[in-house]
Fold:
Amino acid sequence: MRAVYLVTLGLTLAAGPLAARDIVLSAPVDCDLGSDCFIQQYVDHDPSRASMDFHCSNLSYNTHKGTDFALRSIAQMERGVNVIAAAPGTVQATRDGVRDEIYTRNRSSELDSRECGNGVVINHGDGWTTQYCHLKRSSIAVKTGDRVNLSTVLGQIGLSGRTQFPHVHLTVRKDGAVVDPFDPDGTITCGAPSSETLWKTPLPYRPGGVLAVGFSNAVPKFDDIKAGHAAAQTLPVDAPALVVFGYAFGGKAGDQMQLRIDGPDGEFMNQTVEIEKNQAQFFRAIGKRHTADWAKGTYRGTVTLKRGTRTISTEQGSVQIR
Structure:
């Protein structure tokens, strides 16, 4: 079968204000942006080699041309989360067949011209298009020429193409030029983000946050945390260590992560670590080695991400010692 190629990602940001803002968008994911999923990155508004989102913060990277709606774990992706058309239109192109796997440099040749992975392009008329990248292999549910509406499932969030985490990358274009749906005119005023967007319902801006808190008998591997398999539900009284970890996104140099463990007898451990550099996703862990059997009962972990005096996010997890 002849391959249908998606619109290239190598377009530049729109220069100057838009002539018309005649598209209205809905969130393209069937999940709760306050709990089940989150926006990891936004369109880059910095023309230099640095990057800046529409809040003049760090949730972007150089030349990023879309909005990344991400899941908390690969396990969540495997259970299935639908991608939905952001606006009515006609399917212009699709691609499927790219495997779901975390990107590494040795896959660069394999993904040449297929960085978007599996995806869909929709034409909305009047020069507007939306592109959906990194969908799960074999999940594409539409074909070229199909009419879609706001309830049409396009596929599922995946890990295909050039990506390090499960998400759908949404690019909005007007006459071929990238438009940030959070700031359509592209005029950025730091400290006063635009109140005019393309979203039918305003989407919350989270400057970062804790995604998961869990316990383990050793400092876990980051891949296991991202997969959603690192947290133990129970541990034996003679576990070699008692470790709590916090998994987060949007880390900024100077942020602090406080990790606390409370056991059956009260506070067990409490430590704050500083984030040394900007990090899209990261984790930190604290714990104690086994010197005597742990007291039986429930241990609760609380992880708080702070930026200066401001608390960005707090999450909790627990484990049973038996």
Residues 74-79 form the longest helix (6 residues). The radius of gyration is 21 Å. The mean pLDDT is 91.
